[in-house]
Amino acid sequence: MTTSDRSAFVAGLPKAELHVHHVGSASPRMVSELAARHPGVVPSDPEALRRFFEFRDFAHFIDVYLAVVDLVRTPDDIRFLTYEIGRELAEGQSVRYAELTCTPYTSVLPDDPDRGMPIEAYTEAIEDARRSVERDFGLVLRWIYDIPGESGLPAAEATTTFALDHAPEGLIGFGLGGPEVGVPRPQFKPYFERTRAAGLRSVPHAGETTGPETIWSALRDLRAERIGHGTSAAQDTELLAYLADRGIALEVCPSSNIATRAVASLDEHPLPAFVAAGVPVTVNSDDPSMFGTSLNREYEVAADLLGLDRSGIVDLARAGVRHSFAPDDLKASLLAEIDAYAAD
What we know:
Layout: H1 3-12, E1 15-21, H2 28-37, H3 46-52, H4 58-69, H5 75-90, E2 95-102, H6 105-108, H7 119-137, E3 140-148, H8 152-165, E4 171-177, H9 189-197, E5 201-202, E6 205-206, H10 212-220, E7 226-229, H11 237-246, E8 249-252, H12 254-259, H13 271-276, E9 281-283, H14 295-306, H15 310-322, H16 328-343
């Protein structure tokens, strides 16, 4: 298969996206629109915006990310952003199902109500957009609410309240994002216990910028059912065996890891080591617009890293569906669609 043939095949391949952030999916077009609405730190000029998204390291990425978060100030901003993300996932990327990680805390701002919006307005906006996206593009969106770890236990308490007392219909999971250094996982255990008891799935980030011990903590303390990134798992053979034996998938985001300097280069990316150890993996885009990538591109990167042919690429799509939290009937429908596409 030529490179162009492969790109065309991947673009049309029905896919699930399991690790993608709400604000991090705001394309330059969307960010420019939001920056024009709310002039300030983030430039609206496309070239200046490109330079703005050149990250020095993970800490700088967080600073830039939060600057973009600050552009999402009103329910109309939320609705616009969510609907346009759905459009871009569906059109050109053939994403049929996505679990979008949202951080309501940074929009509601419970400690600064003059700047934030009511959680009821936030919930109504994402749900209105979700229904419109499914109607207009055939894309099923589901939500994962995540705690911004850098904001500590007040954010954990607020996010848990949002998830339990103001749950949108599409909410299926509970996560933990942001910096890992200086943000130990055990402190969040009570919040994950409460949300798991309510039926939400545990999907924290772990081992992106810290060692395997953070992943162990996510598994033991937070009862993680999938791991966001899990990059450092490759350093611990016992951990790899644990993940493989229990079928716990890693949500791998290669270009993200390079952009944030979590991994020095693609040649050093641990994805091949995960596969060799029998660890389930899904391929995802994380913050695609900020990293200049897409789910299509990440499939091609993974294909290069793993030496995959067409059949292997199709298997990646199947893995994305199988390790999703979609209901069984939707999984069966998506898998059948993938098989039909591959048979053409």
